[in-house]
Design brief:
This protein is mainly alpha-helical. Helices cover 63% and strands 3% of the residues. It has a two-stranded antiparallel sheet.
Length: 146
Amino acid sequence: MNKDIDNIKKTRLFLLNAINDLSADQLNEIPAGFNNNIIWNLGHMIAAQQSICYIRAGVLPVVEKKYITEYKPVDAAEIQKIKDLMLSTLDRLETDRETNVFCNYTTWTIHYGAKLASIDEAIVFLPYHEGLHSGIIITLKKLVSK
């Protein structure tokens, strides 16, 4: 397995384990002072990975469009689907990277000023983005677990 993708997978496994005991209501709860919830953050991590890796390379995303374009509170079945996508999208990313489907990656400048010019650079960037959301998820968990 690609070391960078494996590191992302370890972070996602940690998060899935950390939220395993939360109810659908807790995962959808938006605490005062926040503008989103735990499940939104998980969905956003999937959407960002699809956008940064697939869409930027001109490749169709491997998840339904609704996970990329719109995200709203979800029921237990949809929560399980998001949890499953947290790992399956990384397995697919690795397979697609190995088969060179990202050969037309378009260089772009991310919000932080750095330029991503290849799928490998995008994969190296993902842990930074996911780390930001991991911190938010852990904070939200503390607030909804009270």
